[in-house]
Design a protein that fits this description.
This protein is mainly alpha-helical. Helix content is about 65%, strand content about 5%. It has helices at about 5-30, 50-65, 70-90, 100-125, 160-165, 170-195, 205-230; strands at about 140-145, 145-150. A two-stranded antiparallel ribbon has the order 1-2.
Amino acid sequence: METPHGARLHRLTLAFRLASLALVGTLAACGGSAQHQAAAAPSPQPPANSEELAAIARARADSARLPSTGADAQVMTGMINHHAQKIVMAGWAPSHEASPSIQTLCARIINAQRDEIATMQTWLRDRGRPVPEPVPGPMKMKMNGMEHEMLMPGMLTEEQMHQLDQARGEEFDRLFLTFMIQHHKGAVSMVKDLFGSYGSAQDETVFKFANDVSVDQSTEIARMEKMLAALPPSQPS
Protein backbone atom coordinates (compact mmCIF):
# COMPACT_ATOMS: atom_id res chain seq x y z
CA MET A 1 0.00 0.00 0.00
CA GLU A 2 1.39 3.38 -1.06
CA THR A 3 2.08 5.81 1.78
CA PRO A 4 0.92 9.47 1.65
CA HIS A 5 4.56 10.50 1.35
CA GLY A 6 5.05 8.10 -1.59
CA ALA A 7 1.95 9.40 -3.33
CA ARG A 8 3.13 13.00 -2.90
CA LEU A 9 6.57 12.10 -4.29
CA HIS A 10 4.92 10.39 -7.26
CA ARG A 11 2.84 13.51 -7.99
CA LEU A 12 5.89 15.76 -7.76
CA THR A 13 7.86 13.50 -10.10
CA LEU A 14 5.01 13.48 -12.62
CA ALA A 15 4.69 17.27 -12.39
CA PHE A 16 8.41 17.71 -13.02
CA ARG A 17 8.27 15.50 -16.12
CA LEU A 18 5.27 17.41 -17.48
CA ALA A 19 7.00 20.73 -16.79
CA SER A 20 10.11 19.52 -18.61
CA LEU A 21 8.05 18.59 -21.67
CA ALA A 22 6.34 21.98 -21.61
CA LEU A 23 9.72 23.68 -21.36
CA VAL A 24 10.96 21.84 -24.44
CA GLY A 25 7.97 23.15 -26.41
CA THR A 26 8.52 26.69 -25.17
CA LEU A 27 12.22 26.72 -26.05
CA ALA A 28 11.52 25.29 -29.50
CA ALA A 29 9.34 28.31 -30.26
CA CYS A 30 12.00 30.80 -29.13
CA GLY A 31 14.57 30.31 -31.90
CA GLY A 32 14.64 32.84 -34.74
CA SER A 33 14.20 31.82 -38.36
CA ALA A 34 16.26 34.47 -40.16
CA GLN A 35 19.53 33.40 -41.73
CA HIS A 36 22.54 35.48 -42.75
CA GLN A 37 25.05 34.18 -45.23
CA ALA A 38 28.20 35.60 -43.62
CA ALA A 39 27.67 34.68 -39.98
CA ALA A 40 27.78 30.91 -40.18
CA ALA A 41 27.58 29.98 -36.51
CA PRO A 42 24.85 27.30 -36.12
CA SER A 43 21.88 28.10 -33.93
CA PRO A 44 21.46 25.54 -31.13
CA GLN A 45 18.52 23.21 -31.71
CA PRO A 46 15.74 22.62 -29.16
CA PRO A 47 16.64 19.91 -26.62
CA ALA A 48 15.71 16.45 -27.82
CA ASN A 49 17.26 14.01 -25.37
CA SER A 50 17.86 13.38 -21.70
CA GLU A 51 21.37 14.91 -21.74
CA GLU A 52 20.06 18.23 -23.05
CA LEU A 53 17.19 18.19 -20.55
CA ALA A 54 19.75 17.57 -17.82
CA ALA A 55 21.76 20.58 -19.07
CA ILE A 56 18.65 22.73 -18.79
CA ALA A 57 18.03 21.44 -15.28
CA ARG A 58 21.60 22.35 -14.31
CA ALA A 59 21.16 25.82 -15.82
CA ARG A 60 17.98 26.30 -13.82
CA ALA A 61 19.75 25.16 -10.66
CA ASP A 62 22.65 27.54 -11.30
CA SER A 63 20.22 30.40 -11.92
CA ALA A 64 18.42 29.63 -8.68
CA ARG A 65 21.72 29.61 -6.77
CA LEU A 66 23.29 32.59 -8.57
CA PRO A 67 20.47 34.33 -10.44
CA SER A 68 21.21 36.00 -13.77
CA THR A 69 20.11 39.56 -14.32
CA GLY A 70 18.61 41.58 -17.15
CA ALA A 71 22.09 43.01 -17.77
CA ASP A 72 23.46 39.47 -18.19
CA ALA A 73 20.79 38.62 -20.74
CA GLN A 74 21.26 41.90 -22.62
CA VAL A 75 25.00 41.31 -23.02
CA MET A 76 24.55 37.66 -24.01
CA THR A 77 21.94 38.73 -26.57
CA GLY A 78 23.57 41.87 -27.94
CA MET A 79 27.02 40.33 -28.19
CA ILE A 80 25.71 37.77 -30.70
CA ASN A 81 25.21 40.45 -33.38
CA HIS A 82 28.44 42.09 -32.23
CA HIS A 83 30.38 38.87 -32.87
CA ALA A 84 28.52 38.25 -36.13
CA GLN A 85 29.79 41.51 -37.61
CA LYS A 86 33.36 40.54 -36.73
CA ILE A 87 32.90 37.28 -38.61
CA VAL A 88 31.79 39.22 -41.70
CA MET A 89 34.75 41.60 -41.46
CA ALA A 90 37.28 38.83 -40.93
CA GLY A 91 35.71 36.72 -43.66
CA TRP A 92 36.62 39.33 -46.27
CA ALA A 93 40.37 38.92 -45.72
CA PRO A 94 41.08 36.28 -48.44
CA SER A 95 38.99 37.99 -51.15
CA HIS A 96 40.25 41.48 -50.29
CA GLU A 97 43.95 40.67 -50.73
CA ALA A 98 44.81 40.92 -47.05
CA SER A 99 48.40 40.17 -46.02
CA PRO A 100 49.21 36.68 -44.65
CA SER A 101 49.47 38.03 -41.09
CA ILE A 102 46.03 39.65 -41.33
CA GLN A 103 44.55 36.48 -42.81
CA THR A 104 45.96 34.45 -39.92
CA LEU A 105 44.50 36.93 -37.44
CA CYS A 106 41.12 36.84 -39.21
CA ALA A 107 40.96 33.02 -39.17
CA ARG A 108 41.59 33.07 -35.42
CA ILE A 109 38.91 35.72 -34.90
CA ILE A 110 36.34 33.75 -36.90
CA ASN A 111 36.91 30.54 -34.92
CA ALA A 112 36.75 32.34 -31.56
CA GLN A 113 33.62 34.32 -32.41
CA ARG A 114 31.73 31.27 -33.70
CA ASP A 115 32.48 29.33 -30.53
CA GLU A 116 31.36 32.23 -28.34
CA ILE A 117 28.16 32.74 -30.35
CA ALA A 118 27.29 29.08 -29.72
CA THR A 119 27.97 29.59 -25.98
CA MET A 120 25.72 32.66 -25.83
CA GLN A 121 22.90 30.98 -27.75
CA THR A 122 23.05 27.92 -25.51
CA TRP A 123 22.99 30.08 -22.37
CA LEU A 124 19.92 31.95 -23.59
CA ARG A 125 18.14 28.80 -24.76
CA ASP A 126 18.75 26.91 -21.51
CA ARG A 127 17.18 29.77 -19.56
CA GLY A 128 14.09 29.99 -21.74
CA ARG A 129 15.06 33.31 -23.32
CA PRO A 130 14.72 34.23 -27.01
CA VAL A 131 17.69 33.02 -29.06
CA PRO A 132 18.58 35.45 -31.86
CA GLU A 133 20.28 34.44 -35.08
CA PRO A 134 23.79 35.92 -35.58
CA VAL A 135 22.96 38.90 -37.80
CA PRO A 136 25.78 41.46 -38.29
CA GLY A 137 23.65 44.52 -37.72
CA PRO A 138 21.75 46.50 -35.08
CA MET A 139 19.99 44.71 -32.25
CA LYS A 140 16.23 45.18 -32.16
CA MET A 141 14.89 46.37 -28.83
CA LYS A 142 11.41 47.27 -27.61
CA MET A 143 11.06 50.49 -25.66
CA ASN A 144 7.75 52.04 -24.67
CA GLY A 145 5.92 49.57 -26.87
CA MET A 146 7.93 50.49 -29.97
CA GLU A 147 10.72 48.55 -31.67
CA HIS A 148 14.06 50.32 -32.06
CA GLU A 149 17.35 49.31 -33.65
CA MET A 150 20.57 49.89 -31.74
CA LEU A 151 24.18 49.22 -32.65
CA MET A 152 26.17 47.69 -29.83
CA PRO A 153 29.28 49.67 -28.75
CA GLY A 154 32.11 49.54 -31.26
CA MET A 155 30.08 48.07 -34.11
CA LEU A 156 30.68 49.51 -37.57
CA THR A 157 28.10 51.64 -39.32
CA GLU A 158 26.90 50.73 -42.81
CA GLU A 159 29.23 53.39 -44.22
CA GLN A 160 32.24 51.93 -42.41
CA MET A 161 31.38 48.41 -43.56
CA HIS A 162 31.10 49.67 -47.14
CA GLN A 163 34.45 51.46 -46.82
CA LEU A 164 36.12 48.26 -45.60
CA ASP A 165 34.47 46.21 -48.32
CA GLN A 166 35.83 48.54 -51.02
CA ALA A 167 39.43 48.38 -49.76
CA ARG A 168 42.05 45.97 -51.08
CA GLY A 169 45.53 44.92 -50.11
CA GLU A 170 47.44 47.16 -47.74
CA GLU A 171 44.53 49.60 -47.45
CA PHE A 172 42.27 46.72 -46.38
CA ASP A 173 44.84 45.72 -43.74
CA ARG A 174 44.92 49.27 -42.39
CA LEU A 175 41.17 49.72 -42.29
CA PHE A 176 40.58 46.24 -40.90
CA LEU A 177 42.95 46.81 -38.00
CA THR A 178 41.54 50.27 -37.34
CA PHE A 179 37.94 49.08 -37.35
CA MET A 180 38.60 45.83 -35.48
CA ILE A 181 40.37 47.76 -32.70
CA GLN A 182 37.25 49.94 -32.49
CA HIS A 183 35.11 46.80 -32.44
CA HIS A 184 37.13 45.08 -29.72
CA LYS A 185 37.14 48.19 -27.54
CA GLY A 186 33.35 48.25 -27.78
CA ALA A 187 33.14 44.65 -26.55
CA VAL A 188 35.52 45.39 -23.67
CA SER A 189 33.39 48.39 -22.68
CA MET A 190 30.24 46.22 -22.69
CA VAL A 191 31.90 43.75 -20.35
CA LYS A 192 33.17 46.56 -18.11
CA ASP A 193 29.63 47.93 -17.83
CA LEU A 194 28.35 44.43 -17.05
CA PHE A 195 30.81 43.95 -14.19
CA GLY A 196 29.83 47.39 -12.91
CA SER A 197 26.13 46.51 -12.85
CA TYR A 198 25.03 45.44 -9.38
CA GLY A 199 24.35 41.71 -9.10
CA SER A 200 25.41 40.94 -12.67
CA ALA A 201 27.99 38.42 -13.93
CA GLN A 202 27.35 36.13 -10.95
CA ASP A 203 26.20 33.30 -13.22
CA GLU A 204 29.21 31.04 -13.79
CA THR A 205 28.93 30.95 -17.59
CA VAL A 206 28.38 34.70 -17.88
CA PHE A 207 31.31 35.44 -15.59
CA LYS A 208 33.69 33.19 -17.52
CA PHE A 209 32.48 34.49 -20.89
CA ALA A 210 32.77 38.14 -19.87
CA ASN A 211 36.19 37.64 -18.29
CA ASP A 212 37.47 35.84 -21.41
CA VAL A 213 36.20 38.64 -23.65
CA SER A 214 37.90 41.26 -21.51
CA VAL A 215 41.27 39.48 -21.36
CA ASP A 216 41.40 38.05 -24.89
CA GLN A 217 40.20 41.12 -26.72
CA SER A 218 42.35 43.50 -24.68
CA THR A 219 45.34 41.35 -25.65
CA GLU A 220 44.31 41.40 -29.30
CA ILE A 221 43.86 45.18 -29.21
CA ALA A 222 47.49 45.58 -28.12
CA ARG A 223 48.63 43.17 -30.83
CA MET A 224 46.62 44.92 -33.56
CA GLU A 225 47.86 48.34 -32.50
CA LYS A 226 51.43 47.12 -33.03
CA MET A 227 50.50 45.66 -36.43
CA LEU A 228 48.84 48.91 -37.43
CA ALA A 229 51.85 50.99 -36.35
CA ALA A 230 54.13 48.75 -38.46
CA LEU A 231 52.23 49.46 -41.69
CA PRO A 232 53.60 52.09 -44.10
CA PRO A 233 51.84 55.46 -43.98
CA SER A 234 48.64 55.65 -45.98
CA GLN A 235 49.09 57.14 -49.42
CA PRO A 236 46.80 60.06 -50.31
CA SER A 237 44.25 59.15 -52.97
